[in-house]
């Protein structure tokens, strides 16, 4: 990502993902658009047929997470697509707590 917001606030974005059980890896792999005040993470289609269309593909892609820079602080807005496309359900995405066996 080449966004100034992402470069300057990468750790804060990563922390938000961990706290909200979102995959930072999925976020980084997703398409997005940005300017100096916002980053809009979009749904990653991963559809090879749709990818062949390139700019001819005019089907809107909904956002999965919106990140706004306001007065030097980030504000995150999840959408109805956030969990489905950015949820941390893969083994490496989930923080595991070891179980302790107690013998009696």
Describe the 3D structure:
The structure is a single chain. A 4-stranded antiparallel sheet has the order 1-2-3-4. The protein is α+β, with helices and mostly antiparallel strands and 104 residues long. Mean pLDDT is 81; it is low at 91-102. 32% of the residues lie in helices and 21% in strands. It contains 4 helices and 4 strands; from the N terminus they run ααββαββα.
Report a brief summary of the structure.
By secondary structure, the chain is α+β, with helices and mostly antiparallel strands. The protein has four helices and four strands; from the N terminus they run H-H-E-E-H-E-E-H. Helices cover about 30% and strands about 20% of the residues.
Defining key terms:
alpha+beta; 4 helices; four-stranded antiparallel β-sheet; 104 residues
Residue share in β-strands: 15-25%
Poorly predicted sequence stretches spanning 5 or more consecutive residues: 91-102
* Structural class by secondary-structure content: alpha+beta
* Average pLDDT for all residues: 81
Distance, first to last CA: 53 Å
* Widest sheet, order of strands: 1-2-3-4
Q: H/E element string? A: HHEEHEEH
Q: Work out the radius of gyration.
A: 17 Å
* Count of strand segments: 4
| Major sheet characteristics | 4 strands, antiparallel
Characterize the overall form: globular
Q: Output the number of helix runs.
A: 4
Helical content (DSSP H or I, runs of 4+): 25-40%
């Amino acid at each position: 990502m080449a966004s100034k917001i992402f470069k300057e606030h990468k750790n804060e974005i990563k922390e938000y993902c961990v706290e909200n059980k979102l995959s930072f890896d999925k976020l980084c792999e997703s398409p997005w658009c940005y300017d100096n005040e916002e980053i809009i993470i979009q749904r990653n289609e991963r559809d090879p047929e749709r990818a062949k269309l390139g700019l001819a593909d005019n089907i809107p892609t909904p956002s999965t997470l919106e990140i706004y820079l306001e007065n030097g602080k980030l504000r995150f807005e999840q959408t109805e697509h956030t969990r489905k496309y950015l949820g941390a359900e893969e083994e490496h995405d989930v923080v595991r707590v070891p179980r302790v066996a107690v013998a009696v």
